[in-house]
Specification:
six-stranded parallel sheet, 45% helix, 589 residues, alpha/beta, 13% strand
Length: 589
């Protein structure tokens, strides 16, 4: 059944009523949780709450120096909150790790006592029974002890915070600084943290407001639902983002939290494509059950073109393509060998690897600047690398350098480009890159002619990366800087796009066809079966709820009959299309 809000004023009134309920909870010093589906405007409610607090600051922040804390999950979300509150000094907006470190870092003695019993530290202590003579640091994000400093890993910060928040005295000291703490995307906070923060909740503790949706919990070791905690439950039901068709689809999937499209929402569409007609071999292992890469490329192009013709206004551009893994995107966009060179995709997708970061953040922009004769921005980017421009002949030297770099970029490998950069004298290559190269050279010298380097991992990856055609780096940069229509389903939570093409393929972590087949009996699932189902369902919901007008789903693994029945109930049989293949394994028109 379609649900729609009679008019925009009704949806606007719901937002006002929601804000009123939030403020009533704050005034009563009552913890609350705003649970709302995708597109309901949770962030807008959070911003409205912050603005009201700032407009009535003496009431909510009565003492000098007090601030309202706003905890986010990403730097992007933090920056957006800072922007929308005009950078107010009375708002402390930070990521979860940033806030927790701000809260616990001044308690050096307590931290060092707790570190001794944290998981992952036994091998680092080297027999030490006390760390009280050490300083404690969280600046590099990796675990270790050197000279007089204990350096914390990212996972150590929430673990330590949970232990400190369990102490009532600590909660009172935090409340003295942050009387109100608002948590955005609460479902992504580390498991156990919300329980520790709330404690037994006395009047001396901070008042907490949790904004989120437990169906959008897609990260391991996060809390998910907090319905078991003593918080007042609030809801928003209007969906400001999506068309009527998408809202109907989401409601059929999630009837327990019904949403209503706003009055001026477009009609939109939801179409499902499946590859059950594929008769050839399917993938194994990490691509279990998926059609081969070549067939996937053909199928994806066919579905995208058919969807564009049928549903998408060309003026809006191509649909956003959401794929399950970076590996799938790497194959599609032409940097598959980079993906295979690294054990962890975050090394290249998030530029965690120093060499990748150097090429993407320094080399590629400089080549672009030089080509466009934008020498000022180029030298600004290189200024920390001490660029040399002392005499007139240096101009010729710079031109020759970029000529050689561009030849290597176009026709050579990553190793060719790096070797060119290491042999030049016009700017300094980062020490991390130089060090990696030297260690790799030394390790390779010790090998026999028929041997391959097998450890350490970073040097092995560096060697594999050097062998990759440099054009893949240029393709990777286009993807990382979001100049392509592709993203992972994990990476778009919170985003929205006019049209979405969500590709559900094979990966041993997710089985979407099984999730669909299990939907009718979801209430009977227990234990690991329930956890798996919810993990699969949550990512499916996040991907599908990004669409503003048109949503297209493409399944590249076979859907069992039970799964197809679920989809028919959600979208209607007429909106389910079987992709047909010829004897040559090409998509039929």
């Amino acid at each position: 059944m379609s649900q729609s809000v009679p008019g925009a004023t009704t949806a606007e009134q719901e937002s006002k009523d929601t804000l009123g309920s939030i403020l009533a909870a704050l005034d009563a010093r009552s913890n609350f949780k705003l649970e709302a589906g995708a597109g309901a405007g949770k962030t807008t409610s959070l911003i409205d709450t912050l603005r009201h607090i700032l407009e009535n600051r003496p009431q909510y922040l009565p003492r000098d120096g007090q601030r309202v804390a706003c905890i986010t999950y990403t730097n992007v979300a933090r920056n957006e909150i800072i922007r929308r509150t005009d950078g107010s000094p009375h708002v402390f907006a930070e990521t979860i790790h940033g806030f927790l470190w701000e809260a616990i870092s001044r308690f050096r003695k307590s931290l060092l006592q707790e570190v001794l019993t944290l998981p992952g530290w036994s091998g680092k202590l080297d027999g030490l029974s006390s760390l009280l003579d050490y300083e404690v640091s969280y600046d590099l994000g990796f675990r270790g002890i050197d000279e007089n400093t204990v350096r914390l890993h990212h996972e150590d910060v929430p673990a330590l915070a949970i232990r400190l928040f369990a102490k009532q005295k600590f909660r009172k000291l935090v409340a003295d600084r942050f009387p109100i703490i608002l948590v955005d995307e609460y479902q992504d906070t580390p498991a156990g943290l919300a329980e520790a923060m709330l404690g037994e909740h006395s009047g001396a503790d901070s008042v907490y407001g949790f904004f989120g949706d437990h169906w959008q919990q897609i990260y391991d070791k996060s809390c998910g639902s907090i319905d078991h905690l003593p918080v007042e439950r609030l809801q928003k039901k209007a969906n400001w983002r999506s068309s009527q068709a998408v809202v109907d689809f989401l409601n059929n999937m999630r009837p327990e939290l019904p949403q209503a499209a706003v009055a001026d929402a477009k009609l939109g569409s939801v179409t499902v494509y499946h590859t059950n007609e594929w008769s050839g071999p399917r993938g194994t292992h990490s691509k279990k059950g998926q059609i081969p890469d070549g067939a996937l490329k053909d199928t994806l192009r066919w579905v995208a073109e058919r969807s564009r013709r049928h549903h998408v206004d060309e003026a809006k551009g191509a649909a956003k393509v959401l794929m399950l893994t970076h590996s799938s995107i790497a194959t599609e966009l032409g940097f598959g060998n980079i993906d295979r060179a690294f054990k962890r995709n975050e090394e290249y997708s998030r530029k965690n690897d120093d060499v990748v970061a150097f090429l993407l953040d320094i080399v590629e922009p400089c080549c672009e600047y030089f080509s466009n004769k934008q020498y000022g921005p180029m030298f600004d980017l290189l200024k920390r690398s001490r660029p040399r421009m002392r005499k007139r002949s240096d101009k010729t030297g710079w031109a020759d350098l970029f000529a050689w770099i561009n030849v290597a970029r176009e026709w050579g490998t990553v190793g060719n480009v790096i070797d060119t950069l290491l042999s030049q004298e016009y700017f300094a290559v980062p020490q991390a890159v130089v060090s990696r190269h030297r260690k790799w050279e030394l390790a390779c010298r010790d090998l026999d002619e028929d041997q391959e380097l097998t450890e350490p991992r970073r040097l092995v990856e560096y060697g594999k990366f050097r062998d990759v055609a440099y054009r893949e780096v240029m393709a990777l940069r286009e993807y990382v800087e979001e100049n392509t229509p592709f993203s992972t389903q994990h990476g778009v939570k919170g985003a929205e796009y006019p049209s979405v093409l969500a590709v559900f393929g094979g990966w041993n972590m997710y089985n979407f066809p099984e999730m669909l087949a299990s939907f009718p009996r979801r209430a009977t699932l227990v234990g690991d079966d329930k956890k798996r189902f919810e993990r699969w369902r949550n990512l499916f919901y996040v991907a599908c709820s990004r669409a503003q007008e048109h949503l297209v789903l493409l399944f590249t693994t076979e859907i069992p009959s039970g799964g197809l029945e679920t989809l028919k109930e959600w979208v209607g049989e007429s909106n389910i299309v079987a992709v047909r293949y010829s004897k040559e394994d090409t998509v039929e028109p």
